[in-house]
Specification:
about 350 residues; alpha/beta; six-stranded parallel β-sheet; six-stranded mixed β-sheet
Length: about 350
């Protein structure tokens, strides 16, 4: 598939298409154009000219490209969390640089189905290629028989009970997450607990001791890091400052509104488990002002929108581009039999000081 066809369908020049597809991170002046080019390239299964070059150099047939599926474990849609949206974009760019194809985008529902019409949903067991061929239609892309040149990128924490089936379906697997597994597959991660401790310790260094937490509290490393930072500085944990949420913008907004209406002493600082929640908090503070009250707000992820808030959001950077690069490098090295042991790579987080903390 040529760049000319992608340029024609996207209504732009061949040079613009080439820059978007071949220069990771390139943006266009026209809003949405880069996303449109990527969408068309994916729909057409575009690959760079490496395969055509192989034919010109004497290959008898076009080599079959390596394909990677992506499994988003925590959400029903990529639109739910901008962090994973941005990470996914970097994954697509890395696949293109390595002359690989993006396969199916899988969600938890792809691995769940009713056992019968009266039962609750249950996990789909692994099915052999022979059984799959007998089934029409195929229920889910997660059940399609896999070839040796197909890999899987897991985004987020994968249920351990799924791993044996995934190993049978995929030639190689790599995970990207904020927390490591128990060496179940190759993975690249940035420690969520360490990121949370860095955020809370920064607030403490500014003199804050009345620090609220908004985020997931169910075995969530960021909540653990929040608590550990308070404990290390001998600050008692006040459960009135703990606000469980699913870490969405709307819940951040709603919880902050509830805090403002509570009538109890307001926290001097708020630590949000992710930027999306913090953006909702800042929106609530801006729309429902309390005279003389503007808490410091800090979060984790450093998504693009964190620079567009007012005030600009102080956050902990999670190196998404580097995580995607290293994860795809591990996946490719596993495919080429470059390593056989489980590999775990940890990347450091970094404090990004902006205007929302005083």
């Amino acid at each position: 598939m040529s760049l000319k066809k992608i340029a024609k369908l996207s209504g732009t020049s061949v040079s613009t298409v080439s820059r978007v597809l071949h220069q990771p991170g390139h943006t266009c002046n026209q809003p949405g154009l880069a996303e449109k080019i990527w969408q068309i390239a994916e729909e057409l299964n575009y690959l760079p000219n490496g395969f055509a070059q192989a034919l010109r150099m004497g290959a008898k047939e076009e080599p079959s490209p390596f394909t990677a599926d992506v499994f988003l474990t925590r959400f029903e849609s990529m639109d739910t969390d901008p962090f994973f949206q941005e990470l996914f974009q970097h994954i697509k760019e890395e696949l293109l640089c390595k002359n690989c194809l993006l396969g199916d985008l899988l969600y938890p529902d792809n691995f769940m189905m009713p056992i019968n019409e009266n039962s609750i949903p249950g996990m789909v067991p692994y099915k052999s290629s022979e059984n799959i061929r007998r089934e029409t239609p195929v229920i889910s892309p997660a059940l399609i028989s896999r070839k040796d040149n197909t890999g899987l990128v897991i985004l987020g924490k994968c249920p351990e009970s799924l791993i044996p089936a995934l190993r049978k379906r995929y030639a190689c697997i790599v995970g990207i997450d904020r927390n490591p597994t128990d060496y179940l597959y190759d993975e690249v991660f940035c420690d969520g607990s360490a990121a949370a401790m860095k955020a809370v310790e920064y607030l403490i260094s500014l003199g804050h001791r009345h620090i609220a937490y908004i985020g997931d509290c169910n075995f969530e490393s960021r909540y653990i890091g929040y608590y550990q930072a308070l404990l290390a500085h001998k600050i008692p944990l006040n459960y009135q400052n703990i606000h469980p949420s699913r870490q969405t913008l709307q819940e951040g907004y709603d919880i902050m509104c509830s805090i403002l209406r509570s009538g109890v002493s307001f926290p001097s600082a708020i630590f949000c488990a992710n930027d999306t929640t913090a953006i909702g908090v800042l929106k609530a503070l801006k729309l429902h002002k309390k005279r003389g009250y503007m808490p410091s707000v800090i979060s984790i992820d450093n998504i693009a929108d964190s620079e567009k808030t007012s005030p600009m959001l102080t956050t902990i950077n999670i190196p998404k581009k580097e995580m995607a690069h290293l994860a795809l490098s591990l996946l490719w090295d596993r495919k080429e039999h470059g390593h056989s042991e489980i590999v775990r790579l940890e990347l450091p987080c970094r404090l990004i000081v902006r205007e929302s903390c005083t």
